[in-house]
């Protein structure tokens, strides 16, 4: 009473190939996410630099505005 399990071989091979494809796809997604994270970090750094520059310009603008107000009021 031996059972013929030869039908199982193609199923195992198919499952292994499918797993290989899924694993490859997941690795590709991980790499894409890492690249995207790197780009977002650089964009964040640029935004921080620009925010600092804007803050300085706002302070300068406020100072100039006060100076002009004092001049126009004769102070």
Characterization of the model:
The chain has one helix at 8-72. The chain is an all-alpha fold. It is rod-shaped, with a radius of gyration of 33 Å. The N and C termini lie far apart (111 Å).
What is the SS-derived class?
mainly alpha
Largest sheet: none
Q: What's the gyration radius in Å? A: 33 Å
Cα-to-Cα separation, first versus last residue: 111 Å
The global form is rod-shaped
Query: What are the segments in which pLDDT stays under 50 over at least 5 consecutive residues?
Result: none
Beta-strand portion reads: under 5%
Element-by-element helix/strand order = H
Q: If you average the pLDDT, what whole number results?
A: 89
Number of DSSP helical runs = 1
Helix content: over 70%
The beta-strand count equals: 0
Please describe the structure with a list of short key phrases separated by commas or semicolons.
75 residues, mainly alpha, rod-shaped
Quick synopsis:
With 75 residues, the chain is mostly helical. It is 87% helix and 0% strand.
Task: Give the SSE map.
Blueprint (H helix, E strand, L loop, with lengths): L7 H65 L3
